[in-house]
Specification:
The chain has a domain of 32 residues. It is mainly alpha-helical. The longest helix is centred in the C-terminal third of the chain and has 10 residues. The chain is built from three helices and no strands.
Length: 68
């Protein structure tokens, strides 16, 4: 595995428990460097409004399973 591939995996949460893989200091530094995207989280009201705008799916004209 080359260094670039390993650096992409280094902070993968699935590999965090691997002994000696990443130190607590490295993890803290990486987490502090992440941008705050909490404003992108939709609240429940906007999700409900989005659902109410979506049209109901129409039933198929013919059944999917024809018993012959």
């Amino acid at each position: 595995m080359n260094r670039e591939s390993q650096s992409k995996l280094k902070f993968d949460r699935r590999l965090r428990g691997r002994p000696g893989w990443v130190s607590e200091q490295e993890l803290e530094t990486e987490l502090e460097g992440l941008e705050d995207v909490s404003e992108n989280v939709a609240d429940e009201e906007s999700q409900e409004a989005e659902r109410s705008r979506e049209p109901e799916p129409s039933p198929p004209d013919q059944p999917l399973n024809k018993l012959v």
